[in-house]
Specification:
This protein is mainly β. The chain is about 5% helix and about 50% strand. The protein has a single domain (about 1-145), classed as YhcH/YjgK/YiaL (Jelly Rolls, Sandwich), CATH 2.60.120.370. The longest helix is centred in the N-terminal third of the chain and has 9 residues, at about 20-30.
Length: about 150
Protein backbone atom coordinates (compact mmCIF):
# COMPACT_ATOMS: atom_id res chain seq x y z
CA UNK A 1 0.00 0.00 0.00
CA UNK A 2 1.12 3.50 -0.75
CA UNK A 3 -0.06 6.66 0.97
CA UNK A 4 1.05 10.21 0.22
CA UNK A 5 -0.34 13.67 -0.42
CA UNK A 6 -2.54 14.05 -3.47
CA UNK A 7 -0.13 16.59 -4.98
CA UNK A 8 2.45 13.76 -5.23
CA UNK A 9 0.16 11.30 -7.02
CA UNK A 10 2.03 11.68 -10.33
CA UNK A 11 5.20 10.37 -8.65
CA UNK A 12 3.63 6.89 -8.61
CA UNK A 13 2.85 6.59 -12.33
CA UNK A 14 5.89 4.34 -12.87
CA UNK A 15 4.52 1.89 -10.29
CA UNK A 16 0.84 2.25 -11.23
CA UNK A 17 0.59 3.59 -14.82
CA UNK A 18 -3.21 3.26 -14.65
CA UNK A 19 -3.16 6.35 -12.37
CA UNK A 20 -2.60 8.49 -15.47
CA UNK A 21 -6.34 8.86 -16.15
CA UNK A 22 -6.83 10.15 -12.61
CA UNK A 23 -3.84 12.51 -12.69
CA UNK A 24 -5.05 13.98 -16.00
CA UNK A 25 -8.55 14.43 -14.57
CA UNK A 26 -7.17 16.22 -11.50
CA UNK A 27 -5.35 18.79 -13.65
CA UNK A 28 -8.68 20.30 -14.74
CA UNK A 29 -11.24 19.13 -12.17
CA UNK A 30 -11.87 19.34 -8.45
CA UNK A 31 -12.86 16.13 -6.66
CA UNK A 32 -15.10 18.18 -4.33
CA UNK A 33 -17.43 18.57 -7.33
CA UNK A 34 -17.97 14.81 -7.74
CA UNK A 35 -21.43 14.23 -6.24
CA UNK A 36 -22.29 10.88 -7.85
CA UNK A 37 -20.42 7.95 -9.38
CA UNK A 38 -18.49 9.13 -12.42
CA UNK A 39 -16.80 6.97 -15.07
CA UNK A 40 -13.76 8.52 -16.76
CA UNK A 41 -12.07 6.23 -19.24
CA UNK A 42 -11.00 3.11 -17.34
CA UNK A 43 -11.62 4.47 -13.83
CA UNK A 44 -14.70 5.11 -11.72
CA UNK A 45 -14.90 7.85 -9.07
CA UNK A 46 -17.21 7.03 -6.16
CA UNK A 47 -17.96 9.77 -3.60
CA UNK A 48 -18.58 8.64 0.00
CA UNK A 49 -19.44 10.33 3.29
CA UNK A 50 -19.15 8.27 6.48
CA UNK A 51 -22.28 7.66 8.50
CA UNK A 52 -22.97 6.09 11.85
CA UNK A 53 -22.53 2.32 11.61
CA UNK A 54 -24.31 0.34 14.32
CA UNK A 55 -23.20 -2.94 12.68
CA UNK A 56 -19.45 -2.23 12.71
CA UNK A 57 -17.46 -5.49 12.67
CA UNK A 58 -13.77 -4.89 13.55
CA UNK A 59 -12.68 -8.17 11.89
CA UNK A 60 -14.46 -7.75 8.52
CA UNK A 61 -12.45 -6.85 5.42
CA UNK A 62 -13.10 -6.88 1.67
CA UNK A 63 -10.83 -7.73 -1.24
CA UNK A 64 -10.96 -7.40 -5.02
CA UNK A 65 -9.44 -9.40 -7.86
CA UNK A 66 -10.09 -7.34 -10.99
CA UNK A 67 -9.97 -3.78 -9.71
CA UNK A 68 -7.87 -2.03 -7.12
CA UNK A 69 -8.74 1.03 -5.09
CA UNK A 70 -7.32 4.47 -4.57
CA UNK A 71 -8.90 6.17 -1.55
CA UNK A 72 -8.67 9.96 -1.44
CA UNK A 73 -9.73 11.81 1.71
CA UNK A 74 -11.36 15.17 1.06
CA UNK A 75 -12.49 16.00 4.62
CA UNK A 76 -11.56 14.51 7.98
CA UNK A 77 -9.42 11.42 8.56
CA UNK A 78 -10.24 8.07 6.99
CA UNK A 79 -8.93 5.03 8.82
CA UNK A 80 -8.25 2.08 6.52
CA UNK A 81 -7.91 -1.35 8.09
CA UNK A 82 -5.98 -3.97 6.16
CA UNK A 83 -4.45 -7.40 6.20
CA UNK A 84 -2.54 -9.24 3.51
CA UNK A 85 -4.90 -11.48 1.59
CA UNK A 86 -3.47 -14.84 2.59
CA UNK A 87 -4.39 -18.09 4.26
CA UNK A 88 -4.92 -16.31 7.60
CA UNK A 89 -8.05 -14.62 6.24
CA UNK A 90 -11.21 -16.60 6.99
CA UNK A 91 -13.43 -16.08 3.91
CA UNK A 92 -16.99 -15.32 5.02
CA UNK A 93 -18.42 -14.48 1.57
CA UNK A 94 -16.92 -16.21 -1.44
CA UNK A 95 -15.74 -14.08 -4.34
CA UNK A 96 -18.56 -12.40 -6.29
CA UNK A 97 -17.26 -12.11 -9.86
CA UNK A 98 -19.97 -9.69 -11.00
CA UNK A 99 -19.28 -7.18 -8.20
CA UNK A 100 -15.57 -8.03 -7.81
CA UNK A 101 -15.34 -8.57 -4.09
CA UNK A 102 -15.10 -11.13 -1.35
CA UNK A 103 -15.43 -10.69 2.39
CA UNK A 104 -13.25 -12.18 5.06
CA UNK A 105 -12.32 -11.89 8.70
CA UNK A 106 -8.87 -11.70 10.18
CA UNK A 107 -7.10 -11.30 13.50
CA UNK A 108 -4.27 -8.82 13.95
CA UNK A 109 -5.70 -6.27 11.54
CA UNK A 110 -3.48 -3.27 10.91
CA UNK A 111 -4.74 0.22 10.11
CA UNK A 112 -3.48 3.49 8.76
CA UNK A 113 -4.94 6.97 8.83
CA UNK A 114 -5.41 8.84 5.56
CA UNK A 115 -5.95 12.51 6.44
CA UNK A 116 -7.49 15.23 4.32
CA UNK A 117 -5.48 15.82 1.14
CA UNK A 118 -3.89 12.35 1.17
CA UNK A 119 -4.53 9.22 -0.87
CA UNK A 120 -3.93 5.52 -0.36
CA UNK A 121 -3.42 2.98 -3.16
CA UNK A 122 -4.66 -0.46 -2.14
CA UNK A 123 -3.40 -3.26 -4.42
CA UNK A 124 -5.34 -6.50 -4.78
CA UNK A 125 -3.20 -8.55 -2.41
CA UNK A 126 -4.60 -6.59 0.54
CA UNK A 127 -7.98 -7.17 2.13
CA UNK A 128 -9.16 -3.85 3.51
CA UNK A 129 -11.99 -1.82 5.00
CA UNK A 130 -12.17 1.93 4.62
CA UNK A 131 -13.95 4.28 7.02
CA UNK A 132 -12.93 1.74 9.67
CA UNK A 133 -14.61 2.84 12.89
CA UNK A 134 -14.32 6.38 11.52
CA UNK A 135 -16.12 9.48 12.75
CA UNK A 136 -19.31 10.56 11.00
CA UNK A 137 -18.85 13.09 8.21
CA UNK A 138 -15.55 11.95 6.68
CA UNK A 139 -15.74 12.80 2.98
CA UNK A 140 -13.76 10.85 0.41
CA UNK A 141 -13.53 9.57 -3.13
CA UNK A 142 -12.86 5.93 -3.93
CA UNK A 143 -11.28 5.39 -7.33
CA UNK A 144 -11.76 1.94 -8.89
CA UNK A 145 -9.16 1.09 -11.53
CA UNK A 146 -7.72 -1.99 -13.20
CA UNK A 147 -5.00 -3.81 -11.34
Amino acid sequence: MITDTLENLENYLSVFPQLEVLTNYLKYNNLENVKENKVIGDITLIPLISEKNDNFDPELLEAHRKLMDVHITLKGIDRIAYHQLDDKINITKEYDNEHDYLLGKADNILSLDVPEGYFCVIPNHFAHMALYNTAVGVKKIVVKMSS
